[in-house]
Design goal:
Layout: E1 4-9, H1 19-30, E2 36-44, E3 49-52, E4 56-62, H2 73-93, E5 98-101, H3 107-112, E6 118-122, H4 138-151, E7 154-157, H5 160-164
Parallel strand pairs: 1-2, 1-5, 2-4, 5-6, 6-7
Antiparallel strand pairs: 3-4
Length: about 160
């Protein structure tokens, strides 16, 4: 059988983040197929470094994080910028079968402009009108988010309520 090569993009992965980080970790830990290879691009609070496991490579990109569980917009934009650069370098050397963006924004932004097939997992705050904390940002992000969704191979919400929204 041919290996399946997946490039995952998630701005948070333990120890950084909350629910999205834990969901991503759980999915990765439950893939017990030796023919599936995952390369994850995620955040690091201070320095770039690479972790290599049996079928998993994690590239942690420095986004100047101040708190592990709180995101500032400057950190999000550092992630988009640095993850996009890193993802382009990776995809120029390796032909991934699919790119999995763990949120529509910011991860879907990175996936959208790679020129490879991608899927988007919706987690909540990345869906306009879901979270009151982001009310000021949704009007600016909505056109970008809709573009990301419409160009994805598939958009996967994590609940029926999120799908309806």
């Amino acid at each position: 059988m041919t290996d399946l090569e997946i490039l995952m993009i998630n701005y948070e992965y333990p120890p950084i983040g909350g629910g999205t980080a834990r969901a991503c970790e759980k999915v990765i830990n439950n893939i017990n197929d030796e023919d599936v290879k995952i390369h994850l691009i995620t955040s690091s609070p201070s320095n770039y470094y690479r972790e290599t496991h049996e079928n998993l490579v994690i590239d942690r990109i420095d986004v100047h994080k101040e708190e592990d569980h709180v995101w500032k917009f400057t950190e999000v934009f550092w992630f988009i910028f640095k993850a996009s650069y890193h993802a382009r370098k990776l995809t120029s050397k390796k032909d991934f079968d699919i790119v999995h963006a763990w949120t529509g924004f910011p991860c879907g932004t990175v996936a959208r402009f790679l020129g490879h097939p991608y899927i988007v997992s919706l987690r909540g705050g990345d869906v306009p009108e879901f979270d009151e904390r982001f009310t000021l940002y949704y009007p600016f992000l909505k056109p970008l988010i809709k573009n990301i969704w419409s160009n994805a191979k598939n958009v996967i919400p994590n609940s029926t309520g999120l799908k309806e929204l």
